Amino acid sequence: MTKYVIRRLAMLVPILLGVSILIFTVMRLIPGDPARQALGPEATGEQVEALRKAWRLDEPIWVQYWAWLQRAITGDLGRSTVSRVPVVEELATRFPATLQLTVAAMVIAIVLGLAFGVAGAVWHNSAIDRVTMVIALLGICTPSFWLGLLLLLGFSVKLHWFPAAGAGGIEHLVLPAVTLGVGAAAIVARVTRSSMIDVLGDDYVRTARAKGLRQQTVVTRHAMRNAMIPVLTILGLEFGGLLAGSVVTESVFAYPGIGQLLIRSIGNRDFPIVQGALLLFSVQFVIINLVVDLLYAKADPRIQYS
Amino acid sequence: MSTTLRKAERERSLWGDAWRRLRRNLFAMIGLVGLVLIVLVAIFAPRIAPYDPNLQDYMVAMKGPSRDHWLGTDNFGRDILSRIIYGARISLRLGLFGTIIGASIGSLLGAVAGYFGGWIDTLIMRLLDIQMAFPGILLAVIVIAVMGISDVNVIIAIGVFSFPTFARVIRGSFLVLREQDYVSAAKSIGAGSRRILFRHLLPNSLSPILVLSTLRLGTAILTAASLGFLGLGVRPPNPEWGTMLSEGRNYMQLAPHIAIFPGLAILLTVVALNLLGDGLRDALDPRTRK
Amino acid sequence: MNRTQHFETVLRDWEAAGLSRRTFLRYVAMGTSAVALNGMLVSHISAQTPVAEPEVAEFPASAPFVDKEFKISLQTEPDNLDVHDTTSNASASVDKCIYEGLVTLNQEMRITTLLAKSWEVSDDAKEFTFFLQEGVTFHDGEAFNAAAVVAAFDRVLNPESTLRRAGYFGAVLDHVEEVDEYTVKFVAKFPFAAMVATLAHPAGGIPSPKAAEAAGADFGIQPVGTGPFKFISWVRGDLITLEKNENYWNPDLAAAVPKLLIRGVSEPSALGIAVQSGDAAFAGPLEAASAQQLRQVDGVEVTSVPGLTVYWATMNNTKEPFTDVRVRQALNYAVDKNAVLMAGSLGEGYVADSPIARDTWGYTEVGAYEPDLDKAKSLLAEAGLADGFSTQIFCSAVHRDRAVAVQGQLSQIGVNAEVMQMESAALTEETSKPQEESNLQMLISQWSPSTGDADWALRPIYTKAQWPPAGNTTSFFTDEEVESAIQQGLEISDPVARAEAYATAQKRIMELAVNLFLYVPDYLGAIVSNAGGCLTQADGVTFFRTAYWRE
């Protein structure tokens, strides 16, 4: 088990190397000069040149990459070309906000998704099933930025229930988390439903029923546990999707997370930040997948890792 | 001679069965009809649209829905309805070509990985892991940043965004198929890799590709819209729906209709595609066959 | 350099009239413009009486203290709070609360003393001696004195420095030296009478040298100055917290609120909503749509200041068919600028009737090209383009609506313009290319003269020396008459004649239709009715160190 975890974590190394090489190359293909962007329109050509030298942007790309890699191994990802703040610190201050947002969205996805999914399966083919599934479908198909703007308009402007922008207390989290979580909730609902329907038709569930167990017990004790495996898979995938979605959601709500920083940093050609943030995303991705796989084992004793 | 005949017959019945099942599925039919309507609107846009989508008329700028302008006008006085109608052309085109590119690259990679296995499989899958490791929309943003803002580049970005999903699904389906008897049989009579791939495996993987394509088309349209929303979509003044929404976001309070209707258009189109995609999946899924 | 020449010519006349060189330089050092000096000279010569001392503007005194924190939303988050390492308006806005200069600009953008009690200027206008306020301390408890000023400027003038304001000071300032504990001398590289104005810019704030050295590259997130507010925290991407500096040296200018909470809100509609929903007491600069919406809201006042910025569409004067003046004029006639103003800023601004904005010194009303499609078409026909032509309009996201409006208007005369929207960094790369390599045809662009003077409004945009990559003449325009008028404006001393030279240049530029001139936008902000002391100024910097609550 421990060996398995270590082996999986070791896979991070080639992935991070691959991602960093890819980003390093791609960022330097983008038209636009970080030094010019950092200095602003009034800077003279000489100033820009001097800064390019100071940042070693005039050297061949592999030399730059090697220099970056050597420092990166020691945990130094450089400094933002815009704020001059160390990348690690810039990410560390924003990461909790993004994590809060994604976790809150995840909670919404799990709670709503399971409730809708189980309801749909238990009352299979009834009106409840249809209504919940139509709602789920709408959830999947609604563009999140549009939903965000509508929520902003309704709950912030008209009703004054929640603040329009920023982060802080739980009240800042509600609208962005709902915006972000609805899509995932819908997917979770659909997967839960179909998985539950399969399981409810299985022999052991029928046996349980035949024994005269109450519907509630059958669903929660017997069916849920087994129906959870595909749901777990989709949750793992969706968490990655939520990270991606946070990019857009954070812009709509001016939410101070990594996603917004990334979009702005790509615009500013702030290479060190882009590099650092994407590496962070990769690490998250690998870890989340690992956690999901470990949860499989919990949900299904037949699965063992060695 | 007789084997070909029988094969053709079998194929006909596979798709025929699917169609019969699809027809019985109310939601799928709603999706299909909706999609057909949207495609018709796109094709006949110049006849249907009441105005030129780019005609600026400042006398009626920022007006809400009215008898003359059913969905109102934007800050240039352009008719929102006409822009949405023409926008169907753009959004469908971006989604369709983007998905085709993604499906082609993805299917090819997945087929190669699934068929050959071994180190080729490992290599391709690790590369896909790297790609999957960062959010797709960012990849699309970076593609646009590198290549510039234009229709073609949005299509490429969507292709890059969506090919890994295809690769994974096709690989999975190949892993199963290549162990099937008829493949072994073909191999044993000395059929080449290419022949097995294209004659036997690909045709048998068509139904997952088709189902996935329908579902991913919706995602592709949403991705194009997201790019438009981030200001990286098609070139103005082209009425791509996401771009229209982004143009309207400044006016959310003064004239909310500018952003609300394009959003609805995206929603309805993607709903239609998903209804149809779900229906297709059920219809083509061997497990649901009775 | 050019401004220097201008001052020199005025000085020559000044001395010829028997006035003291020393008085002249003192006035200059107080920020008196060459134009005003000329005025004095003229009145001296005509009246032969000594001129009155020019007033140094008062710094607005603060209102009574109310113990309630004050929230401000800016359009963008500051990039960096090291006063010598930013060119962003948002950062300058916050820096004005934390740092103070020896001199500064007040809300009306006039020079006032702050950390200096007074100053003297050497006869050759190369040495500027400032007498400092005593008993001032930085937020970290360090004493503010001559040594601190010297250390602060040594930091930015260090040749190794990559601070963003290194060029700003390095171009004119040779070094700074300590005379005694409360006297400091700035030595210019060459006679440069505008030194005091240079120091009054927000970038002239004095950081605590000790804190700056200790923090190193992190000074941008740990700023320390002498201002009425001290820096408390910055949750990156979210909130900057400043607190009233209880040890502030001047009770008259002390903070009137206990805390300033500053947030960047990048979603334009959310910025306006922030004031409306009570999330912020002030928000700016606002989009026109938000401002108009907020005008209808009770309890919110909208502030509006005509900008110094002019929007236009550049036409590449070296590329066919824009080489033909008739084509450029035709395009100017074809576009209804009011429509563009409507589409781009919902009418918040005015149609440009000169290449420069009304509040720029030296402005002359030339008159806009009145929309006239027939005239436009006949001009195109004369140029042999009766069927119109195809072209491209480059723009970044901020100018998208203006580009689309121009594109729509031009289609009326058969000019088929493709809007080439680019990411702004990519567009900057394109606009920095020299003429031979440039792909530019039309480009939606703007200019805002930071000096408020016609010279700096015209020279960077309409002279050959400023063709990219050196400067911003993206039209690649050059014309002898315009060049010589701009040069004259610097060389002749009579303000009337100088204004005439600029008038000639403006008329000529308009006549040659160098650019397709659009409009001048207003700078908008919103403040809740029970607050005051905040304003987004004509240069786009938001001023709020005087923020206060009405009872």
Structure explained in plain terms:
The complex is a heterotrimer of chains A (306), B (290) and C (551). Chain A has a domain of 166 residues: MetI-like (MetI-like fold, Orthogonal Bundle). Chain A is built from 13 helices and no strands. By secondary structure, chain B is mainly alpha-helical. Chain B has one domain: MetI-like (MetI-like fold). The longest helix of chain B has 37 residues. Helices cover 33% and strands 21% of the residues of chain C. In chain C, strands 1, 8, 9, 10, 11, 12, 14 and 19 form an eight-stranded mixed sheet that branches. A five-stranded mixed sheet of chain C has the order 16-15-17-13-18. In chain C, strands 4-5-7-6 form a four-stranded antiparallel sheet. In chain C, helix 9 runs parallel beside helix 10 and helix 11 packs antiparallel against helix 13. Chain C is globular, with a radius of gyration of 25 Å. Chain C has 551 residues and is of the alpha+beta class. Chain C starts with a helix and ends with a strand. At the A-C interface, helix 3, helix 4, helix 6, helix 8 and helix 12 of A face helix 9 and helix 15 of C.
Short recap of the structure:
The complex is a heterotrimer of chains A (306), B (290) and C (551). Chain B is mainly α and 290 residues long.
For the largest interface, the chains and their residue counts are: A-C, 52 and 45 residues
- Specify the CATH architecture of chain B: Orthogonal Bundle
Structural class of chain B: mainly alpha
The total of helices of chain B stands at 11
* Terminal CA distance of chain B: 30 Å
Total number of strands of chain B: 0
> Which CATH class of chain B applies here?
Mainly Alpha
CATH topology of chain B: the name is MetI-like fold
